[in-house]
Design brief:
The structure is a single chain. By secondary structure, this protein is α/β, with parallel strands linked by helices. The chain contains 5 helices and 5 strands; from the N terminus they run E-H-E-H-E-H-E-H-E-H. The protein has a single domain, classed as Rossmann fold (3-Layer(aba) Sandwich), CATH 3.40.50. Strands 2-1-3-4-5 form a 5-stranded parallel sheet, with helices on both faces. It starts with a strand and ends in an 8-residue tail after the last helix.
Length: 127
């Protein structure tokens, strides 16, 4: 059985390490990127089943990353889950994200949300 791949885009190393550990323990393969621009560069290499991204990051933020994924025909089927300490309506405005996770988050909710989004398997079209 192939592990589902998650591209985790998070600029805070401690949060990235925590989420990577939790998601790998839950049975996912996790690849890291420190900002949206790096995340975009990793897409063709990683070929993730979903992207989990912080919103507020330097270089290219999570909303811009989400928009870039959603408007690229090669990647638009990849679901994007955004996370932020800001309100959902501020974070997801103009971005068709599959889900939103408020920070601080409950780790069980992160895992449950990811499982729910991946059940929809929107990205089969891009493989």
């Amino acid at each position: 059985m192939d592990l589902k791949k998650i591209l985790l885009v998070e600029d805070e190393p401690a949060i990235a390490a925590l989420l990577q550990d939790v998601l790998e323990e839950a049975g996912y393969q996790v690849d890291l990127a420190a900002n949206g621009r790096e995340g975009l560069r990793r897409l063709p290499v990683v070929r993730p089943d979903m992207v989990l991204s912080d919103v507020m990051m330097p270089v290219l933020d999570g909303r811009e990353l989400c928009h870039a994924i959603n408007t690229n025909p090669h990647y638009q089927a990849i679901p994007v889950v955004l996370m932020s300490a800001s309100r959902e309506d501020q974070c997801c405005q103009g971005c068709n994200c599959a889900a939103f996770l408020p920070k601080p988050f409950v780790l069980e909710e992160v895992v449950a949300t990811i499982a729910q989004v991946l059940k929809q398997d929107r990205c089969a079209a891009y493989r």
